[in-house]
Each structure stands twice: as structure tokens, then as C-alpha cells.
Amino acid sequence: MAARKDTWQLDLLSAAMVCRSWYFVSISLIKTDELFDLVNFAGAQRAYPHRRRLAGLLEESKRCGLGFHRLVHKLVIDLISFQKEMVLARAPSSVHRLVTSCPSLQRLEIVYDAKFASMPCLIVDRLGLLTDLIGHGAIDRLDLVSHDPVRRCPCCAGRGWDHLLCGLLERLPIRTLALHQVIPSQAVFDTLSRNAELHHLVLHRSIQDMPGKPGRSTTSLTRIPRSFFDRIDTLDIYEDLEDAAVEWPALRYFSEMADRLGPLQSFTFECTGNPAKEKEPEYAQGLLLLAEQRSKTLRRMTLRNVPGITSKIVKLLLGHIDHLQVDSVQYDAYIN
Questions:
Q1: Rounded distance, CA 317 to CA 41, Å?
Q2: 142 pLDDT exceeds 90?
Q3: Residue 85 contacts residue 94 (beta carbons within 8 Å)
Q4: Residue ranges covered by each domain of the chain
Q5: Do 234 and 266 contact (CB within 8 A), yes or no?
Q6: Which of 47, 154, 173, 258 has its CA 20 to 30 A from that of 219?
């Protein structure tokens, strides 16, 4: 639908380049949020159908000093689109042209797909060009997003290829890493651990049980090196409790977090869906354990739609942390 519905805005953007009077008419009609959503619209075949045209228009905006090219703040990199665009071995793709034209990029999203392991030569070639272009930017957030989370566990989507991202990642001055049903490789974590600015980790449905030795269950958290957790002072976790393939064992997961985390100062846990009624106490117990074991550094906790948080639990949590938010209600340990 988006492929057809919003292309008129591209026509308006094109018209804005014609002359000064057309520029003022067009700018009053263009909805910039919708227009630049088209930069990252993938389409059913992950072909990003509007990028080639947008790249040309934004290059023209830069040449003419019109400012449209400064309105793009987020870019999705899906390596499959490089393959679909490839005509000449080192011809600039739409992604390369957009990176060159858009100086205000702040957020980079990289799609993780296990299929990329079968095309490493293409990855090396295209990422080499991209690395040279992107290092000068101000990108402070990196999102790694699984393309096929239903059929791939978080640790499998990058297997055999994501180490090829390291040259690019070491150039990014990111402060926030967001993992969307993805746990990248040790090589990626090692690279990111050397980033002095990185301090904020966001996990979207990325914690789950992993295959292990008989009688020993491990979670995807164990695939995150302690050296990386040592950099993290802010952790946000978003989980869908009803969509989980198996029950979310809250007490065990929070216990593992408490054991692995470093100098954590701020923690957010947000749920959608509801667990079985008999499982609700596990969430409160797990959060209390986390607050107690991290009480030396943890100052703030934010809980949204978390089951089992009673007034008694609030009081107990405030015995370990200074500030607590439960849904829209704020609590302070120093205010009775």
C-alpha cells in the first residue's frame, strides 16, 4: 500500500527543485515524516523501491542548499538490497548515495538474515564502500533487527557473516545498541566493547532459552560477554509475554541478569500481554533480586505493565533504589 499511497510526495519533492515559487508551494504540502518514511520502506521483496529516486532528489537538495537532505535521521541497511541493485561491481548503491547526501543521520538499523552467510564477497565489497563514507557521521544509535525471528533463534541470524560488520561498527560513535530478537557474534560484541561512548543496551524480545548440555539450560544472555556488560549503565528490556514460544521464566532470567550486569544505574522493563496468574509473583521476586544485588549502583527502575507489582513490592524495591516508576506513577525513596 505504501508503495502507491505516498509516492505523490516524491512528485512534490521533485517539483520543489524546479524554481523558488514551486519550492514554497511544495514545502507547504509535503508531510516530511511520511515522505522520509519512504527512505526505509522495504516492500514485499525487500527492494526499497523509492530509494533510488529519493537518493537523486536528496543529492539535488544538497547541491541547491534546500535542506531536505538534512531531514533524514534514520537509515535501514539490508544487505539483500545491495544484491538486488548490483549492476557494476563497485557502482554506488542507493544506500551509499543516501549516506553521502544526508549529514543528519543519527540512527542506523542493520537487518540480520541468516541468508547473508552465503554472500560474503558481496558483503565485504559493499560494506567496504559504506565504511569509508559513514565514519564521519553523528550516528549515536545502532539497531540490529532479525528478519526471520520465528524460524531463527537470536544467536543464529548472524552466524557466519556478521563479523564482516566489524570494520563498519568500529567507525560508529554509538551510545545506544538495540537488539531486536538478535544476539550478535562475539566478534561484534568485542568491537562494540571498545567503543568508549556506548553505555545503553536495549533488548527487544531477545532473551530466551538456548540449547545447552543435558540438564543445563542457558539463555541468550550468556552469549553477551561480561566485558560488554561492564560498559552498560542503562538497560531497557521489552518483552511480549503472550507471544513467547515458551513461558518466560522471570525469576531465572532476572537472576542471570543480576549476575552478569556491570555498573547498572537505570533499568526499564516493559511487557505486553499477560502471563499465567500463578507466574505473576516470579516477576516481583526477580525484580527484587535484581534491585538487591545491584543496589550499589542502581538508582532508577521503570516498570510498565509488569505483573505482580503490588504496593508491598513497591516499598521493598524502594529499599534498594532511589527512584521507581510503575506505569505512570512515580515513587521516591526519600519521600514518604
A1: 43
A2: yes
A3: yes
A4: 32-332
A5: yes
A6: 173
